[in-house]
């Protein structure tokens, strides 16, 4: 077996210092927030946290900036986002290095995340000239009936560790062109990435002359996020995280009649039909299940295979999983980096034990690697577990690389298994049968927000709205008409007839 040498925490700290310097990020050291790296499990910096008392002033500053920003023409607002996209292009490699250091993503995935940020900036700049309303035929002569869209207010963004930059960019790029301002509370697990993103946007703000407080950063833990959720000046809370978190955020925002956009857990499935191109299916399944060490909301967690091809699929997957390169995410040959924390590792172990207790069989993986070299880092072997249809663990999302293998005989049974979980984010079918492909994407097919054919569950494009149904929260971010969540609609009637005519032929004279 090839010897794997991990970088030291000191080496990673030096890389981070160099990158931050190139991006003109000044670290304010103190207490409250620790920057750590899952590559070694070591501590990089102790950073000053946002004081709870500062939240009120931060939101007020964003609100006051909104009052002027909303009157700036949308194409002018787009110039700010254009400049952000240009700075992201310049610092693509720098930001990707921070993402790898703080999340353990392999280099190509970290670069892909920054490219996603660049893409949404391009999308939003175009959107700034396409915030269309509509003209509606009025039943009254001499009247014009129309719909217009207006900026909403302060948008509170709460993001998770696994996409520490991209999810922020989805929200901030669209919110800014819509005329909103943003207060961002990122994951406390990725403070360096957050500071770098904030600094790039601050530079864009300075260079374009936008109001300084159109974007503010809150660097702290859960309590600060709760204050953001409860603040009546925050018109929209866009929160990405677990279903548990969404259950808390949604009702609290609704109680004050605010809006929420929830992007929560996924427990995603793929169906492999007898007619599938198995080479294509296996390649897609391996990336979707093992990419980002299973720490994507779109990670493939359930594989539903027809009994006629299950033996072939299983053999190919087991053989491939055994050869997956696990280790230093900066190494070009690595495909699986570390889990984010000890807690994530323990959650994976608990899920495997539950699967065993329910009669499941671990077909491959599940072990830990590099424990001697890095006792505080958690590198794991992606696992495949054969389970029965009665297994309860498959209904839960475990944020780790565990793929549960189930079988089916009829396509109706496969769809039922796909839908038989509380979550509804992403789904796939691998088939060359046109009827099966169309049925899967029809109203009585997959009940998820993302429904793919011959494509894995991971890797959404910017142009399509991203989000899911059921316990995934129902929100939509990024492309399509997701911009409407960041704006308010006004229906306007203009009477130019000189006479008062009531709707529905009502008379009142």
UniProtKB/TrEMBL annotation:
The active site is at residue 263. InterPro entries: Ald_DH/histidinol_DH (IPR016161), Ald_DH_C (IPR016163), Ald_DH_CS_GLU (IPR029510), Ald_DH_N (IPR016162), Aldehyde_DH_dom (IPR015590), ALDH7A1-like (IPR044638). Residues 33-489 form the Aldehyde dehydrogenase domain. Transmembrane segments: none annotated. Pfam families: Aldedh. Belongs to the aldehyde dehydrogenase family. Homotetramer. PANTHER family: ALPHA-AMINOADIPIC SEMIALDEHYDE DEHYDROGENASE. This is aldehyde dehydrogenase (NAD(+)). It comes from Sinosporangium siamense.
């Amino acid at each position: 077996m090839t010897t794997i040498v991990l970088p030291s925490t000191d080496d990673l700290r030096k890389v981070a210092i160099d990158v931050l310097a190139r991006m003109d990020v000044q670290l304010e050291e103190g207490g409250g927030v620790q920057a750590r790296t899952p590559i070694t499990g070591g501590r990089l910096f102790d950073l000053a946290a946002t004081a709870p008392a500062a939240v009120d002033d931060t939101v007020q500053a964003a609100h006051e900036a909104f009052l002027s920003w909303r009157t700036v023409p949308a194409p002018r607002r787009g110039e700010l986002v254009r400049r952000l996209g240009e700075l992201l292009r310049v610092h693509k490699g720098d930001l990707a290095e921070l993402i790898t250091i703080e999340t353990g993503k392999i280099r190509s995935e970290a670069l892909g995340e920054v490219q996603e940020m660049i893409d949404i900036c391009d999308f939003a700049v175009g959107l700034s000239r396409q915030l269309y309303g509509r003209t509606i035929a009025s039943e009254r002569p001499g009247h014009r009936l129309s719909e217009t869209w207006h900026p909403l207010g302060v948008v509170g963004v709460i993001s998770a560790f696994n996409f520490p930059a991209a999810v922020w960019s989805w929200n901030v790029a669209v919110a800014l062109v819509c005329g909103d301002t943003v207060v961002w509370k990122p994951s406390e697990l990725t403070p360096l990435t957050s500071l770098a993103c904030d600094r790039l946007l601050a530079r864009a703000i300075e260079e374009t002359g936008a109001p300084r407080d159109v974007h503010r950063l809150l660097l702290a833990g859960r309590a600060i996020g709760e204050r953001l959720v409860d603040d009546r000046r925050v018109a929209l809370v866009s929160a990405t995280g677990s279903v548990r978190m969404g259950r808390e955020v949604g009702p609290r925002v609704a109680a004050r009649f605010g809006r929420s956009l929830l992007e929560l857990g996924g427990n995603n499935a793929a169906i492999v039909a007898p007619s599938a191109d198995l080479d294509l299916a296996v390649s897609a399944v391996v990336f979707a299940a093992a990419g980002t060490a299973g720490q994507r909301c779109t990670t493939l967690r359930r594989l539903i295979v027809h009994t006629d091809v299950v033996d072939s699929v299983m053999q190919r997957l087991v053989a491939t999983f055994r050869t997956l390169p696990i280790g230093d995410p900066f190494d070009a040959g690595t495909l699986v980096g570390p889990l984010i924390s000890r807690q994530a590792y323990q959650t994976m172990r608990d899920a495997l034990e539950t699967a065993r207790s329910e009669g499941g069989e671990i077909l491959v993986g599940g072990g830990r690697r590099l424990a001697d070299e890095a006792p505080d880092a958690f590198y794991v072997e992606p696992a495949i577990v054969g389970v029965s249809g009665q297994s309860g663990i498959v209904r839960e999302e475990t944020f780790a690389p565990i793929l549960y293998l189930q079988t089916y005989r009829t396509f109706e049974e496969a769809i039922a298994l796909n839908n038989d979980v509380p979550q509804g984010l992403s789904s796939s079918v691998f088939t060359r049968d046109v009827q099966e492909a169309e049925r899967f994407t029809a109203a009585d097919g997959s009940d998820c927000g993302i429904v793919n054919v011959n494509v894995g569950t991971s890797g959404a494009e910017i142009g399509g709205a991203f989000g899911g149904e059921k316990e995934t929260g129902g929100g939509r971010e990024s492309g399509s008409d997701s911009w409407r969540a960041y704006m308010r609609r006004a229906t306007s009637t203009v009477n130019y007839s000189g006479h008062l005519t009531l709707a529905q032929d009502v008379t009142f004279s």
